[in-house]
Specification:
single chain; about 280 residues; alpha/beta; Rossmann fold; seven-stranded parallel beta sheet; two-stranded parallel ribbon; 9 strands; about 45% helix; globular
Length: about 280
Amino acid sequence: MTTAITGATGQLGSLVITDLLQRGVAPGEIVAIVRDNAKAAPLADKGVTVRVADYSDPAALKSALDGVDKLLLISGSEVGQRVPQHTNVIEAAEAAGVSLIAYTSLLKADSSGVSLAPEHLATEERLAASSIPAVLLRNGWYWENYGSALPQAIESGTLYGAAGNGRLAAASRADFAAAAAAVLTLDDQGGKTYELGGDERLTYAEFAKIVGEVAGKDIAYADLSESDYAAALAGAGLPEPVATMLAGADAGISRGELDTDSGDLQTLIGRPSTPVADVIKAAIA
Protein backbone atom coordinates (compact mmCIF):
# COMPACT_ATOMS: atom_id res chain seq x y z
CA MET A 1 0.00 0.00 0.00
CA THR A 2 1.66 3.21 -1.20
CA THR A 3 0.60 6.56 0.23
CA ALA A 4 1.46 9.88 -1.38
CA ILE A 5 1.41 13.30 0.25
CA THR A 6 1.38 16.50 -1.78
CA GLY A 7 3.10 19.57 -0.36
CA ALA A 8 5.29 17.12 1.53
CA THR A 9 7.99 19.60 2.53
CA GLY A 10 5.43 22.09 3.86
CA GLN A 11 4.69 22.52 7.54
CA LEU A 12 1.66 20.21 7.51
CA GLY A 13 2.92 17.68 4.99
CA SER A 14 6.21 17.08 6.76
CA LEU A 15 4.36 16.47 10.03
CA VAL A 16 2.03 13.97 8.34
CA ILE A 17 5.00 12.01 7.04
CA THR A 18 6.64 12.05 10.48
CA ASP A 19 3.42 10.72 11.99
CA LEU A 20 3.07 8.00 9.35
CA LEU A 21 6.60 6.81 10.08
CA GLN A 22 5.87 6.79 13.80
CA ARG A 23 2.79 4.67 13.09
CA GLY A 24 5.02 2.07 11.49
CA VAL A 25 4.44 2.83 7.83
CA ALA A 26 7.58 1.80 5.96
CA PRO A 27 9.49 4.74 4.42
CA GLY A 28 9.44 3.01 1.05
CA GLU A 29 5.64 2.99 1.11
CA ILE A 30 5.49 6.79 1.36
CA VAL A 31 5.74 9.06 -1.67
CA ALA A 32 6.56 12.70 -0.96
CA ILE A 33 5.37 14.93 -3.80
CA VAL A 34 7.35 18.18 -3.72
CA ARG A 35 8.15 21.21 -5.82
CA ASP A 36 11.77 21.52 -4.69
CA ASN A 37 13.83 18.34 -4.68
CA ALA A 38 16.59 19.93 -2.59
CA LYS A 39 14.20 20.72 0.26
CA ALA A 40 13.15 17.07 0.30
CA ALA A 41 16.66 15.75 1.01
CA PRO A 42 15.84 15.02 4.70
CA LEU A 43 12.87 12.91 3.58
CA ALA A 44 14.97 11.02 1.05
CA ASP A 45 17.55 10.38 3.77
CA LYS A 46 14.82 8.61 5.75
CA GLY A 47 14.05 6.33 2.81
CA VAL A 48 10.92 8.15 1.67
CA THR A 49 10.39 8.18 -2.10
CA VAL A 50 10.58 11.74 -3.41
CA ARG A 51 8.90 12.81 -6.65
CA VAL A 52 8.86 16.33 -8.05
CA ALA A 53 5.59 17.78 -9.34
CA ASP A 54 3.94 21.17 -9.20
CA TYR A 55 0.17 21.51 -8.78
CA SER A 56 0.14 23.34 -12.11
CA ASP A 57 1.92 20.56 -14.05
CA PRO A 58 -0.57 17.80 -14.99
CA ALA A 59 2.02 15.59 -16.70
CA ALA A 60 4.40 15.69 -13.73
CA LEU A 61 1.52 15.01 -11.34
CA LYS A 62 0.42 11.93 -13.31
CA SER A 63 3.98 10.59 -13.26
CA ALA A 64 4.35 11.34 -9.55
CA LEU A 65 1.16 9.41 -8.73
CA ASP A 66 2.13 6.30 -10.67
CA GLY A 67 1.60 3.25 -8.45
CA VAL A 68 0.05 5.26 -5.61
CA ASP A 69 -2.86 3.71 -3.69
CA LYS A 70 -3.82 6.51 -1.28
CA LEU A 71 -3.29 10.24 -1.76
CA LEU A 72 -3.37 13.07 0.73
CA LEU A 73 -4.13 16.23 -1.23
CA ILE A 74 -3.02 19.11 0.96
CA SER A 75 -4.74 22.25 -0.24
CA GLY A 76 -2.49 24.56 -2.22
CA SER A 77 -1.15 27.82 -0.83
CA GLU A 78 -2.01 30.00 -3.86
CA VAL A 79 -5.40 31.44 -2.94
CA GLY A 80 -7.37 32.08 -6.11
CA GLN A 81 -5.58 29.27 -7.97
CA ARG A 82 -6.60 26.38 -5.77
CA VAL A 83 -9.53 25.06 -7.81
CA PRO A 84 -7.63 24.54 -11.10
CA GLN A 85 -4.57 23.28 -9.24
CA HIS A 86 -6.56 20.81 -7.16
CA THR A 87 -8.41 19.71 -10.29
CA ASN A 88 -5.05 18.92 -11.89
CA VAL A 89 -4.15 16.70 -8.95
CA ILE A 90 -7.52 14.93 -8.95
CA GLU A 91 -7.40 14.30 -12.70
CA ALA A 92 -3.86 12.95 -12.39
CA ALA A 93 -5.00 10.66 -9.58
CA GLU A 94 -7.88 9.40 -11.74
CA ALA A 95 -5.49 8.68 -14.60
CA ALA A 96 -3.06 6.91 -12.26
CA GLY A 97 -5.72 4.68 -10.70
CA VAL A 98 -5.43 6.01 -7.14
CA SER A 99 -7.94 4.27 -4.85
CA LEU A 100 -8.53 6.98 -2.20
CA ILE A 101 -8.05 10.74 -1.93
CA ALA A 102 -8.00 12.50 1.42
CA TYR A 103 -8.36 16.27 1.12
CA THR A 104 -7.55 18.97 3.68
CA SER A 105 -10.59 21.22 3.45
CA LEU A 106 -11.97 23.90 5.78
CA LEU A 107 -14.23 23.47 8.80
CA LYS A 108 -17.90 23.72 7.74
CA ALA A 109 -16.83 24.40 4.15
CA ASP A 110 -20.34 23.81 2.86
CA SER A 111 -21.88 26.55 5.03
CA SER A 112 -19.03 28.86 5.97
CA GLY A 113 -18.93 32.50 4.93
CA VAL A 114 -15.14 32.67 5.37
CA SER A 115 -13.48 33.84 2.15
CA LEU A 116 -11.38 30.68 1.91
CA ALA A 117 -14.45 28.42 1.89
CA PRO A 118 -15.58 28.66 -1.77
CA GLU A 119 -12.37 27.18 -3.19
CA HIS A 120 -12.50 24.35 -0.67
CA LEU A 121 -16.15 23.67 -1.42
CA ALA A 122 -15.48 23.65 -5.17
CA THR A 123 -12.72 21.11 -4.61
CA GLU A 124 -15.06 18.99 -2.48
CA GLU A 125 -17.62 19.08 -5.29
CA ARG A 126 -15.01 17.99 -7.84
CA LEU A 127 -14.05 15.12 -5.55
CA ALA A 128 -17.70 14.12 -5.23
CA ALA A 129 -17.89 13.88 -9.01
CA SER A 130 -14.73 11.77 -9.22
CA SER A 131 -14.62 8.01 -9.66
CA ILE A 132 -12.18 7.90 -6.73
CA PRO A 133 -13.62 7.63 -3.21
CA ALA A 134 -12.67 10.66 -1.13
CA VAL A 135 -12.49 11.54 2.55
CA LEU A 136 -12.79 15.16 3.63
CA LEU A 137 -10.60 16.45 6.44
CA ARG A 138 -12.28 19.76 7.23
CA ASN A 139 -9.55 21.38 9.28
CA GLY A 140 -10.30 24.20 11.69
CA TRP A 141 -7.92 27.06 12.39
CA TYR A 142 -4.35 26.39 13.55
CA TRP A 143 -3.32 27.96 16.85
CA GLU A 144 0.01 28.59 15.11
CA ASN A 145 -1.79 31.11 12.89
CA TYR A 146 -1.53 33.55 15.80
CA GLY A 147 2.22 33.18 16.26
CA SER A 148 3.08 36.39 14.43
CA ALA A 149 0.57 38.39 16.50
CA LEU A 150 1.87 37.24 19.86
CA PRO A 151 4.97 39.48 20.19
CA GLN A 152 2.92 42.63 19.59
CA ALA A 153 0.19 41.47 21.98
CA ILE A 154 2.72 40.67 24.70
CA GLU A 155 4.58 43.95 24.24
CA SER A 156 1.47 46.15 24.12
CA GLY A 157 -0.73 44.19 26.49
CA THR A 158 -3.49 44.08 23.87
CA LEU A 159 -4.59 41.41 21.43
CA TYR A 160 -6.57 42.89 18.54
CA GLY A 161 -9.16 41.11 16.44
CA ALA A 162 -12.67 41.19 15.03
CA ALA A 163 -14.11 37.96 16.41
CA GLY A 164 -16.53 39.43 18.95
CA ASN A 165 -17.55 36.79 21.47
CA GLY A 166 -17.38 33.97 18.95
CA ARG A 167 -15.70 30.74 19.93
CA LEU A 168 -12.74 29.24 18.10
CA ALA A 169 -12.10 25.49 18.22
CA ALA A 170 -8.54 25.67 16.91
CA ALA A 171 -5.89 22.98 17.32
CA SER A 172 -2.18 22.64 16.71
CA ARG A 173 -0.86 21.88 13.25
CA ALA A 174 0.55 18.63 14.64
CA ASP A 175 -2.94 17.60 15.78
CA PHE A 176 -4.35 18.04 12.27
CA ALA A 177 -1.36 16.18 10.82
CA ALA A 178 -1.98 13.29 13.21
CA ALA A 179 -5.63 13.15 12.12
CA ALA A 180 -4.61 13.00 8.45
CA ALA A 181 -2.08 10.25 9.16
CA ALA A 182 -4.72 8.29 11.06
CA VAL A 183 -7.18 8.46 8.16
CA LEU A 184 -4.48 7.31 5.73
CA THR A 185 -3.82 4.22 7.83
CA LEU A 186 -7.48 3.28 8.35
CA ASP A 187 -9.70 1.22 6.05
CA ASP A 188 -13.08 2.17 4.58
CA GLN A 189 -12.61 5.94 4.70
CA GLY A 190 -14.13 6.79 1.33
CA GLY A 191 -17.21 9.01 1.63
CA LYS A 192 -16.47 10.19 5.16
CA THR A 193 -16.34 13.83 6.26
CA TYR A 194 -14.56 14.88 9.44
CA GLU A 195 -15.20 18.27 11.04
CA LEU A 196 -11.93 18.82 12.91
CA GLY A 197 -11.47 21.16 15.85
CA GLY A 198 -9.75 21.25 19.22
CA ASP A 199 -11.03 20.75 22.75
CA GLU A 200 -10.49 24.36 23.84
CA ARG A 201 -13.27 26.37 22.24
CA LEU A 202 -12.09 29.83 23.20
CA THR A 203 -13.23 33.38 22.69
CA TYR A 204 -10.46 35.81 21.83
CA ALA A 205 -10.75 37.28 25.33
CA GLU A 206 -10.12 33.83 26.80
CA PHE A 207 -7.26 33.25 24.36
CA ALA A 208 -5.70 36.60 25.31
CA LYS A 209 -5.89 35.64 28.98
CA ILE A 210 -4.02 32.39 28.34
CA VAL A 211 -1.38 34.23 26.30
CA GLY A 212 -0.95 36.55 29.26
CA GLU A 213 -0.65 33.67 31.71
CA VAL A 214 2.06 32.06 29.60
CA ALA A 215 3.91 35.36 29.11
CA GLY A 216 3.49 36.49 32.71
CA LYS A 217 1.68 39.66 31.72
CA ASP A 218 -1.91 40.90 31.66
CA ILE A 219 -3.22 40.90 28.11
CA ALA A 220 -6.66 42.20 27.15
CA TYR A 221 -8.63 41.65 23.97
CA ALA A 222 -9.70 44.69 21.93
CA ASP A 223 -12.53 43.94 19.52
CA LEU A 224 -12.58 45.94 16.27
CA SER A 225 -14.95 45.98 13.33
CA GLU A 226 -13.94 43.75 10.43
CA SER A 227 -13.03 46.75 8.27
CA ASP A 228 -11.05 48.48 11.02
CA TYR A 229 -9.14 45.30 11.79
CA ALA A 230 -8.31 44.77 8.12
CA ALA A 231 -7.05 48.36 7.93
CA ALA A 232 -4.96 47.85 11.07
CA LEU A 233 -3.38 44.70 9.66
CA ALA A 234 -2.61 46.43 6.38
CA GLY A 235 -1.16 49.35 8.30
CA ALA A 236 1.10 46.92 10.14
CA GLY A 237 2.56 45.84 6.81
CA LEU A 238 0.47 42.85 5.74
CA PRO A 239 -0.50 42.73 2.05
CA GLU A 240 -4.05 43.98 1.66
CA PRO A 241 -5.49 40.65 0.41
CA VAL A 242 -3.97 38.85 3.41
CA ALA A 243 -5.27 41.50 5.81
CA THR A 244 -8.74 41.22 4.29
CA MET A 245 -8.66 37.42 4.52
CA LEU A 246 -7.59 37.43 8.19
CA ALA A 247 -10.20 40.00 9.16
CA GLY A 248 -12.81 38.00 7.28
CA ALA A 249 -11.78 34.86 9.16
CA ASP A 250 -12.30 36.73 12.42
CA ALA A 251 -15.75 37.69 11.24
CA GLY A 252 -16.36 34.02 10.56
CA ILE A 253 -15.29 33.22 14.11
CA SER A 254 -17.83 35.76 15.37
CA ARG A 255 -20.50 33.80 13.46
CA GLY A 256 -19.37 30.43 14.87
CA GLU A 257 -17.94 29.19 11.58
CA LEU A 258 -14.61 28.06 13.04
CA ASP A 259 -16.11 26.35 16.07
CA THR A 260 -17.13 22.71 16.44
CA ASP A 261 -17.80 20.20 19.18
CA SER A 262 -17.87 17.22 16.80
CA GLY A 263 -15.11 15.31 18.60
CA ASP A 264 -13.86 14.01 15.23
CA LEU A 265 -10.29 15.19 15.78
CA GLN A 266 -10.05 13.61 19.20
CA THR A 267 -11.49 10.31 17.94
CA LEU A 268 -9.00 10.13 15.07
CA ILE A 269 -5.89 10.98 17.11
CA GLY A 270 -6.97 9.05 20.20
CA ARG A 271 -6.29 11.86 22.65
CA PRO A 272 -7.30 15.42 23.52
CA SER A 273 -5.96 18.19 21.32
CA THR A 274 -2.69 19.88 22.29
CA PRO A 275 -3.27 22.52 24.99
CA VAL A 276 -3.14 26.02 23.52
CA ALA A 277 -0.77 27.07 26.30
CA ASP A 278 1.77 24.56 24.96
CA VAL A 279 1.47 26.01 21.45
CA ILE A 280 1.93 29.54 22.80
CA LYS A 281 4.99 28.53 24.81
CA ALA A 282 6.59 27.04 21.71
CA ALA A 283 5.73 30.11 19.65
CA ILE A 284 7.28 32.63 22.03
CA ALA A 285 10.25 30.51 23.15
